[in-house]
Amino acid sequence: MIEHGGVSASDRRDAFLRYLSERTETIGRRVDRFLRSGWDINGVALLHADALRLREGSETHKVEEVQSTLVLLAEALEVALSREALPDVELGGRVCELVQALSDLAPPPPELPDPGPPLESAMDELTQMANADVAQ
After folding, report:
1. Residue-level pLDDT at 1
2. How far is CA 134 from the centre of its chain?
3. Which of 28, 49, 71, 94 has a CA 20 to 30 Å removed from the CA of 82?
4. Which of 33, 55, 54 is nearest to 44 (CA)?
5. pLDDT recorded at residue 100
6. Rounded distance between C-alpha atoms, residue 80 and residue 48, angstroms
């Protein structure tokens, strides 16, 4: 099915799966850094926003494997934000477990489509054709 702009629902889902993979890795690195160096309330807010955005995207693109984990992650981070306090050891461990579960459950991103020949070779062909026309 082709949607507006000529992009199919399948293409949009593939793009979201690539985005989900990238964000999941980033979230994992951020949580690892927080566990080593200490939590930062602004970082907690960013993680919360990421969890909400990814949950919404997973619903839109029907990536059911991660939806419940993202809901739980957003709720866990909301606890810290609502208290206006950094996660304690228990909450930090829970967040870490949820991020690991997210990483385990997220479907692998699809391969990118073949972009075709490099632009330079196409330009070389056009230049050769134009030069041949001029020579005539």
Report:
1. 47
2. 50
3. 28
4. 33
5. 96
6. 10
The two tokens of residue 73 are 């992650």
Of how many residues is the chain composed? 136
Q: Is 8 helix (H, G, I), strand (E, B) or coil?
A: strand
Sequence letter at residue 23: R
Structure tokens at 133: 């026309």
Q: Assess contact for 20 and 105: CB atoms under 8 A.
A: no
pTM, 2 dp: 0.77
Nearest 5°: CA angle at 52, between 94 and 19?
100
Burial class (CB in 10 A: 0-12, 13-18, 19+), 113: exposed
Cα 50 to its chain centre, rounded Å, is: 9
DSSP letter at 87? Answer: -
Element (H, E) at 122: helix 119-135
Predicted pLDDT at 58? 96
CB 79 within 8 A of CB 44: no
Is residue 24 packed enough to be buried (19+ CB in 10 Å), middle (13-18) or exposed (0-12)? buried
